[in-house]
Amino acid sequence: MPGRDQLSGAQARRIALAAQGFTDRIPAGAVNRKHLSRVLERTRLLQMDSVTVAVRAHYMPIFSRLGAYDRAILEQAAWEPGPRRPTLLAEYWAHEAALVPIEHWPLFRWRMEDFRHGRWREAVGDRKVTAMRAVIRDTVAEIGPSTSGMIEDHLGHEKRPKKGTWWDRSQVKYLCEVMFAAGELSATRRNGFTRYYDLTENVLGEYASVEIERDDAIRELVRGSVTALGVGTEADIRDYYRLKPQPARDALAELISAGAIEQVQVQGWSKPAYLDPAARIPRAVTRTALLSPFDPLIFFRPRTERVFDFHYRIEIYVPEAKRVHGYYVLPYLMGDQLVARVDLKIDRATDRLLVPGAFCEPGADPSVVAQSLAADLHAMAVWLGVARVEVGDRGDLAPVLARAIGSSAFR
Fold first, then answer.
1. Is-contact 310 361, C-beta < 8 A?
2. Averaged over 203-217, what is the pLDDT?
3. How many Å separate Cα 361 from the centre of its chain?
């Protein structure tokens, strides 16, 4: 185990990859709940996002670490418990909207208290709001897991016409979200990605009644962040669960004093770093993986740039004419380096995984990258249930990748 106070940038990079599970053994057979649990021990959360251009964000980190798996395993672990299949995950605001191990849900009680009137204090209680929240809770208790629309129908409310904007919500929808943030309601997902609100005790079971003091919870979240990161700066650690500066600093100081975290210096990093004493420094990393833009390895962009020398910004909200790499671009990991960017899109109608653009990073060998990436794109296409991969013409890597995809090995 590392116990040094000086690390090279390469060592820190390999520690980060090992901490996130990229040096763990890939299962020889089918992926099961045990394998899923191991990934969750590493990442501690799966960020969620509504974009469906390739595959929803919470499915991708498992594929990146374990390869092809039945996505129903994750859905069952989060939303479809059974007699021999207890719930493993719960949804809450962790980094952003995320699935977290169900036993970690009580660690956010303090945040629920802060959000008792909503994430932005948008529902500061007057009598009408308080009464309406009680009505929603009673309705959910009566009719069971429900969308906001189902609650409205039950209450006989007149729905407002849609105007095509994501913030256009009925009062019921609005208050359901407030109550979810406050921990009064929890949620499951059905019919793709539709959120069904339920009483928290119905979703969380025994964990719904667990109370953890604010300072204790934040200290555990900081410790967990360091475990998930392996090594990181204060900013890295705070960002993992979006913690405020002073409480995170206080927790760091306590954990260092207790010997649970070591302060170190990483060559090339301008700020002090904090190391998990149990972190491994592998001699090499041999994994290749396509990474979701929301993968916890890279979702904090300043860390991604510092650790991998990889400047990345998602361009979903950038006008098409101004995009540099594409709409939904996945970084490509090869060994301990991010060596390429791949713009991806699923076209179910034509049974294809489309690659409108592919770009090689400076210093990477395009022919080597293309051969490896072709194999991983083929594996992703099989996992997503489409017949072939088709490469467009944008990017310096595109023609080399197209030839690799077109070779007999990937037909």
1. yes
2. 97
3. 24
CA distance 217 to 215: 5
Which residue, among 326, 375, 386, has the nearest Cα to 355 in the 3D structure? 326
pLDDT tens string 82-103: 888 899 999 999 999 999 999 9
Token pair of 251 as six digits:
């927790």
Asked if 229 and 236 touch (Cβ cutoff 8 Å), the reply is: yes
Rg (CA), the chain: 22
The mean pLDDT of 138-148, rounded to a whole number, is: 96
- Average pLDDT of 9-17? 98
Phi, psi of 209, deg, nearest 5 = -100, 0
What distance in Å separates the CA atoms of residue 322 and residue 312, rounded to the nearest whole number?
A: 15
Q: By the 8 A CB rule, do 379 and 64 touch?
A: no
- Taking residue 94's Cβ as centre, other Cβ atoms within 10 Å add up to 25
Place of tokens 């990937």: 410
Where would I find the H helices in 282-337? 301-308
pLDDT at 123: 66
Predicted local confidence at residue 171, as pLDDT? 84
Q: What's the token pair of residue 31?
A: 């992926």
| Cα distance between residue 24 and residue 287, in whole Å | 9
Q: What is the pLDDT of residue 164?
A: 47
d(CA 195, CA 97): 12
- Residue (of 363, 374, 378, 376) closest to 400 by Cα position: 374
- Quick one: pLDDT band at residue 191, thresholds 50, 70, 90? confident
Concatenate the DSSP letters of all residues of 152-195 into one string: HHHHTPPPPPP-S-TT---HHHHHHHHHHHTTSEEEEEETTTEE
Model confidence at 1, pLDDT cuts 50, 70, 90, reads: very low
Cα–Cα distance, 154 to 167 (Å, whole number): 23
CB 179 within 8 A of CB 135: no
Give the C-alpha separation, 57 to 67, whole Å: 15
What's the mean pLDDT in 318-346? Answer: 97
State the pLDDT at residue 84.
85
Contacts of 341 (CB under 8 A, 6+ apart): 312, 325, 326, 329, 330, 331, 332, 357, 358, 359, 361, 395
Q: What 3-state class would DSSP assign to 149?
A: helix
**Which helix (H) or strand (E) is 199 found in, with range?**
strand 194-199
